[in-house]
Specification:
This protein is mainly α and 300 residues long. The protein has three domains: 217 residues, no CATH class; 32 residues; 41 residues, no CATH class. Helices cover 65% and strands 5% of the residues. The chain has eleven helices and two strands, in the order H-H-H-H-H-H-H-H-H-H-H-E-E. Strands 1-2 form a two-stranded antiparallel sheet. The radius of gyration is 28 Å and the shape is elongated. The relative contact order is 0.10. The C terminus is likely disordered.
Length: 300
């Protein structure tokens, strides 16, 4: 009973700073324009999302493995260590996905971190209010588990019941109904939270107005062109090549002979030679009769 009452609050308060830090990092990437710079270099949203999940998945995996090993001896001695590890790791990944979702509404990391921390703590308040007079109905319990921290509290309550019965939570009894829920449903809802909030965050990241970057229309998932560009890189490359050819050979571009290029000033050549650097000259054809003379200087 002590685990069911006190542990949810203890763990959530202990992880509030971690949740705030994750949210701050996500917003900071957008605030410092790093994400838009990556997109300009051709890095797509799936790669950006995967990098976050892979990085924090490894970090959380190491932390949860240490905790599961310790808890299986001292806190939950009757429960399976691998089941405890899966429970805590899925919780960490679910609040990472939730942070990915809510970060789309903020452009400043400080504001977003504070508001996000309040939202995370409010999830425990909602869970506690619904469980004040006993476990809620199965439907209400499932709805509560759409909030990652509420799902975690539900899982701890189920785990406490198994420990009180001296059987512990095992993979074999994970589907057993305890307090209108089961450990398997908790793990399943955490997996659903990860998928749901990842997709919502991916969608909102493309449609919510922001200072920089291209905002897609809200109906972009229903556009054929979007899915063609997503699943057919060859078609996208052909379109880019066609646009590049039109820019070079169209009416806006006029390439003239190399003899019309402005020569590199002799003073600049002497200056680069005096500094001990090698230099080379090249001409670049631009637009509207504009021809640029560029000097590339490098150190040996």
């Amino acid at each position: 009973e002590l685990i069911a009452l006190a542990f949810p609050l203890v763990f959530i308060v202990a992880f509030l700073y971690t949740q705030k830090k994750v949210l701050n990092e996500l917003i900071s990437e957008k605030e410092t324009k790093v994400r838009e710079s990556l997109r300009m270099l051709g890095v797509g949203s799936p790669a950006i999302i995967s990098s976050w999940y892979l990085t924090y998945g490894i970090i959380f995996g190491i932390l949860c493995a240490i905790f599961a090993l310790t808890a299986s001896f001292y806190v939950f001695p009757g429960s399976s260590g691998t089941l405890i590890f899966a429970f805590f790791w899925l919780w960490c990944m679910s609040f990472l996905a939730f942070a990915w979702f809510i970060h789309c509404f903020f452009n400043q990391s400080r504001t977003g971190g504070i508001v996000g921390m309040i939202i995370m703590f409010a999830q425990w308040i909602v869970y506690s209010s619904q469980n004040r007079d006993g476990p809620p109905s199965e439907t209400v319990t499932l709805l509560l588990m759409f909030m990652p921290n509420a799902a975690f509290c539900t899982g701890l309550a189920v785990l406490a019941k198994f420990e009180a019965a001296r059987v512990g939570a095992q993979w074999g009894n994970a589907f057993m109904q305890v307090a209108n829920s089961s450990f398997a449903s908790v793990l399943g809802m955490m997996c659903l939270d990860i998928l749901l909030y990842t997709l919502l965050g991916w969608y909102l990241d493309r449609v919510v107005p922001k200072e920089f970057g291209v905002r897609l229309p809200f109906y972009f998932p229903f556009q054929r062109s979007f899915w063609q560009s997503l699943w057919s890189p060859a078609a996208l490359a052909d379109a880019a090549a066609t646009a590049e050819e039109a820019a070079l050979n169209g009416p806006a571009a006029l390439c003239v002979g190399s003899g019309a290029a402005e020569p590199v000033p002799e003073a600049l050549r002497r200056k680069s030679a005096a500094s001990g650097c090698n230099s080379d000259a090249a001409t670049v054809c631009a637009v509207c009769n504009l021809l640029l003379g560029l000097v590339f200087v490098w150190s040996p």
